Amino acid sequence: MTPRIRPDLATVPAYVPGKTFPGSVKLASNEVTFGPLPSVAAAIADAAASLNRYPDNGMVELTEALAKKLGVTPDNIQTGCGSVSLCQNLITITTTPGDEVLFGWRSFETYPLATRVAGATPVQIPLTGDHTYDLAAMAEAITERTRLIFVCNPNNPTGTIVTADDLVDFLDRVPPEIVVALDEAYIEYVQPSQAQSYDAIELHRRYPNLVVLRTFSKAYGLAGLRVGYAIADPTVIDGLRRVHVPFSVNTLAQAAAVACLAADDELLARTEAVVAERDRVTTCLRDLGYRVADSQANFVWIDLGADALDFAAASIDHGVVIRPFAGDGVRVTVTEAAETDVFLAFAENWARERRAGEHR
Length: 360
Ligand SMILES: *Cc1c(COP(=O)(O)O)cnc(C)c1O
Description:
Elements: E1 25-26, H1 38-48, H2 60-70, E2 77-80, H3 83-94, E3 100-105, H4 110-117, E4 121-126, H5 135-140, E5 146-152, H6 164-173, E6 179-183, H7 200-206, E7 210-215, E8 228-231, H8 234-243, H9 251-262, H10 264-287, E9 291-292, E10 299-303, H11 308-317, E11 320-321, E12 323-325, E13 329-333, H12 337-359
Parallel strand pairs: 1-11, 3-4, 3-5, 5-6, 6-7
Antiparallel strand pairs: 2-8, 7-8, 9-10, 10-13, 12-13
Helix pairs in contact: 1-9, 2-9, 3-4, 10-12
The structure holds pyridoxal-5'-phosphate (PLP).
Residues 82-84, 108, 152, 156, 183, 185, 215, 217-218, 223, 228 line the site of pyridoxal-5'-phosphate.
């Protein structure tokens, strides 16, 4: 007899992380190129001295620092071992097997996987023609079984954002008992037009079913430490606390996150350079004839259709690792010119070879 494992798990694909090839430029996981600030590294080193002790399970210091920064109370905040664990825990607290979790597609790979791990049913609503979440279609797709809705804004992997009016119209249409998770992993990179401008903290007060998810992995550069947080009504936070795996946010993560918040200005100044670089990369790629979505994140989406896998494989030969999505497109992280220029040189080469091929 082999050990009995839930048979439905056999059909759940494993999460595929971005690849790393030693010596090549990695633009596959939306990381920043910089290591921690000296002040953050020092806080981590200090905290290392007490690693014989369990972490503070309530993450009191970090929770209070976040509450202060965001203008909410600590009972509006729950930290997690990366915001992916909060995505998983939101599914756990809202669904039972057979319930539906709704989200746009293509979007964050974790949503369908975590949904299926919970035994719930993913319902994927295609993006609009310009690769944006189709909130009107999502509102239409709500059923009796819908328990949770993810809105990824900016959307990973397309980088697009919805307008504030569309978001508010959507929240007005969602029945108040259905939880909406607004995943803002890339919020620090957003430079919204007036139409795209909204205040998620303010919205969560107006809509108690709205949960805002944020992370220290992206703009704050702590991807390796695993810490994210949810901002929500205390009823939702209470649910998240009940399923929190004890001590799953570690001591170093708390110390580093608190130090990052203290260095907010310095860290967020770095995002401006990335935003400028994103605009440059987008323009260069479009000039080369690529179809590139309007990104508000630290990556760009290139619509390549059937060429996606070939393009990504060829880029590895040129020393750049990007993230392909078969039959659809590629996502390329934007960091600094020294790295993105390697990618742009490859993209130029590929476009030239394509043109030569067509004219042969
Ligand atoms: C990276 C990312 C996250 C969170 O990552 P963690 O490292 O688990 O905090 C959440 N949502 C989206 C859309 C992401 O791209």
